[in-house]
Amino acid sequence: MTVHQVGARPVPAPPRPSASRAATALLGLVAALAAAVALSLAVGANTLPPSAVWEALTGHGTTETDYIVLGLRVPRTVAAIVAGSALGVAGALIQAFTRNPLADPGILGVNAGAAFAVAMGVAFLGLRSSSAFVWLAFLGALVVTVAVYLIGSSGRGPADPIRLTLAGVALGAVFSGITTGMTLSDPDAFDSMRSWNAGSVLGRGFDVIVPLVPFVIAGILLAFVLTPGLNALALGDDVARAQGANVAGIRIGVIVAVTLLAGTATALAGPISFVGLMVPHIVRWLFGPDQRVIVPLSAVLAPVLVLLSDVLGRVIIAPAEVPVGIVTAFVGAPVLIALARRRKASTL
Question: How far is residue 121 CA from its own chain's centroid?
Fold first, then answer.
């Protein structure tokens, strides 16, 4: 039986896919990501041939192709990759943390907190652009997640996944209700919030993306550090403590990582549904419950899903577009239902 060190004592690790199988899957997903990036750069209301995209990327394109590729599609593609990776890893963490395969990042109130902060900014600060929403959304996600942890850890005993989940759902419902009431009270003022609230990567420039990238990198690195501890927690809190795992430290680390990742993704692209729920579910179904495999594969598979959904949204009712958040919900629901019907896919 393999073991993994958590603290000073060995902790039994779940069966791990062979290194060759995991490496092959990672290479395959990287290839799929490259193909999705190519589609994202070429396909849209003005579909371009690969040669025109290449010329624009290498500085030999026309004014029109440079604007379409470099000005519009490259930032949009990068935003989809950043948001997708963040949501995929956050979903893997929260499912392992709560030991619930149907949990998603929004369960800690991240989406509701971000939307509430944006609504406050629109109502009281007069914000109207998506770029102005970003930092308010991130702050709202952070504040609400901290509040969830404080509420979940109050009373008898330390915070546990059930209490944190209940606190997150309760606070999320309250803030969602308040946000809905505010938006209905003045539809014209909140018109600019509709695109963001539907989940979209349209119009996200590098001035918005670059400042948020360090938060995503920090969250993913923290997730990698936490994976052995999450494997230990899968055995149960008592067993994990007996084996030397710092249960409280792991939980705090997960909450910090989920806040960084889901908060950043929501601030950047709005509340994109089903990605953080579906992607870890698929990876776990294919490769088992080892978080050392689930986290990195989710980080690559999730942006593939977001990119392909964004491309589909551009062409499904062209020349108009469907926000990526709507497409992921439309695609994700039947896929998730099919996965949930498989007994193996519903276990952690």
Answer: 23
pLDDT in tens, 199-208: 888 888 898 8
Q: Is 60 exceeded by the pLDDT of residue 15?
A: no
DSSP 198-234: H---TT--HHHHHHHHHHHHHHHHHHHHHHHHHHHHT
By the 8 A CB rule, do 127 and 147 touch?
no
Angstrom CA distances, 268 to 26, 32, 90, 177, stand at 26, 23, 15, 22
The three-class DSSP label of residue 145 is: helix
pTM of this structure:
0.85
pLDDT of residue 344: 54
Phi-psi bin for 171: left (phi > 0), alpha (psi -120 to 50), beta? alpha
Strands 9-12 and 3-6: antiparallel
How crowded is residue 348: how many other Cβ atoms within 10 Å of its Cβ?
Answer: 17
Type of residue found at 300: V
The predicted structure's pLDDT at residue 5: 44
